[in-house]
Amino acid sequence: MLLDWGSALPYKREMQRRRTSKLQFAVKLSRARSIEDLIQRLYSEIDEIFDPVVVGFDLLDPDTHRLLSTSAHGVSEFFLARYDSVGRASDPVLNHAILSGDIAYNLAMMSEEEWRELPVYREAFSLHRMTNLVYVPVVVAGKVLATLNLGRGEGRRPFSQTELQDAKEIAGLLSSLMESLQRQELLEHEIGILRDAFDLGNEAVVISDVRRATRYMNRAAQRVLEEQQHDAPSFDEAVIEFQNREHRQVSDDGLVSRIVPLRSGEGIVAFLRTGSRAEGPPEWLRQSLTSRETEVMMLASKGLRDSEIAQHLNLSVHTIKGHLREIFKKTGARSRVELVRMAVAADVE
Description:
Helix content is 54%, strand content 17%. It is α+β, with helices and mostly antiparallel strands. The protein has three domains: 2-186, Beta-Lactamase (2-Layer Sandwich), CATH 3.30.450.40; 201-272, no CATH class; 283-346, Orthogonal Bundle (Arc Repressor Mutant, subunit A).
């Protein structure tokens, strides 16, 4: 009995070590901030799970399965180019993994001798004498978004059932992380668009997130606050003044014209009185642009296309493009959206 217990200890220690390694591996991958970062973490940490192994990762179009990008750790760049050029389309293991949506192992589908006879081996995998090959599809929302590729050369031991199961679990982890990263990327994109729209608004708005103790304001609000006299009430003092006036139902022309609560008091939106400002662009912009360039900038800021600006000013599209190049160079704007922001901030009308 004691002998049996003693012989079981190394096995239990190994299982505990594997569980710890897999947990650490999952934690490190979960810290990825982008899909590119996720792939690099996969390459740097894969040895925690597998004995020496070649690892690759292919991103695919989820609808057509067309290759979007490919990379690998442990093979030459020439091999990747060669495989994509003459091997990928005829690889029966890869095709099985993608079409079935399940793990595919070449030695479970055929013998090593049969594998060596295939064109994909002779034309590509023979460069690294890779006789053990595993593809695991990474499935998100029912569609194959990528494949995790593992390989070993001749003379190396075949993949065990435990390793194949580990590969499936890693692909499942990658699926969850990629889905999360895609949602994050989409959310950041939407937030970016909303921020651009928020900045372009003529109404001065300040959003105070009470729960997170953060504050956002558009450019119009920044200008209003910058124009305040030194001895004028601060924004927070103006909010209190407004709330007191509202409570007493007293009209006033203070800095804050309206306040709207958000999410049961977790935040507030304050609308500021913009007051009167000098019309026309500021001095630096007036001196930088010619009168024609100012006209082009004004029309571009209203959303007109190059052809529409050309028609409006009775000029050629080529001339308008030349004016815009000069405007971008002089103002430092890097995009049409940034140019619109600048035009709004400058009150080009």
